[in-house]
Specification:
The chain is mainly alpha-helical. It has one domain: Tetracycline Repressor, domain 2 (Orthogonal Bundle). Helix content is about 70%, strand content about 0%. α2 packs parallel to α6, α5 crosses α6 and α6 runs antiparallel to α7. The protein is globular. The termini are far apart. About 20% of the residues are buried.
């Protein structure tokens, strides 16, 4: 994890945290687009590459992001959701965007930059995760309606 991402986590800069994870996924596939094809083939064949992605040392990016999401849930900033599932869905959405750009699985590649995709995905996820007034009031033990 980069120093900038850790600093964003420490300061609870949700947009920057999610942007860093999304950019990491995009950079991974940009640096070696063949990994998309290899990963898809391996997943279909239940090959050793698939297993290698699941058996890494230390925490995976999905686990790190899930930890951050859980922390923000505990602080009352995010809705009560499954942090593990939210993290996985976010990272997989970015990965699928890159797969679609490379392999055109769902449609013709869209004419959007990766930066625009990151910004859109991050805004959708962070806005969706943010606790509403009632959730925040409940967390803070105050009546927001008065």
């Amino acid at each position: 994890m980069s120093i900038d991402c850790q600093q964003a986590m420490d300061t609870r800069d949700d947009y920057t945290v999610f942007s860093a994870f999304a950019s990491h996924v995009i950079d991974f596939y940009r640096n070696d687009p063949r990994s998309i094809r290899l990963g898809l083939f391996s997943a279909l064949e239940d090959g050793p590459v698939t297993n290698a992605f699941h058996s890494t040392r230390g925490k995976t990016p999905i686990e790190i992001l899930a930890g951050y999401i859980q922390q923000r849930i505990n602080e009352g900033a995010f809705r009560q959701v499954s942090a593990s599932l939210a993290s996985r869905l976010f990272i997989e959405a970015m990965a699928m965007f890159m797969v679609d750009q490379e392999a055109s699985l769902t449609t013709v590649p869209l004419c959007f930059s990766c930066e625009e995709a990151v910004d859109t995905m991050v805004r959708i996820f962070t806005d969706g995760l943010k606790a509403d007034k009632a959730s925040i009031a409940e967390f803070m033990h105050i009546d927001y309606r008065t």
